[in-house]
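Sequence only, no structure available. Ideas?
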Amino acid sequence: ENKQHAKHTGRRWKPCAANENVVVLDADLSKSTKTNLFQKKFPEAFLNGIAEQNMMGVAAGFAATGKVPFA
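Reply:
I predicted one. Tokens follow.
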């Protein structure tokens, strides 16, 4: 990970640090989608291993409880 990429990644996740309701859902593709970088910074707000066909239902459930899901 180069310095420029690390700097960009820090800016990308800054809004997440300001909102404790943000959660990221992943279907074992975190390296491809770069959500592994989010997981390193916010492990408590990251849920991995959800089957793709179930992810939207899980996201809807999170949204119904006030969370802000990204799937």
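Helices lie at 3-18, 30-33, 35-41, 52-64.
Hope that gets you unstuck.
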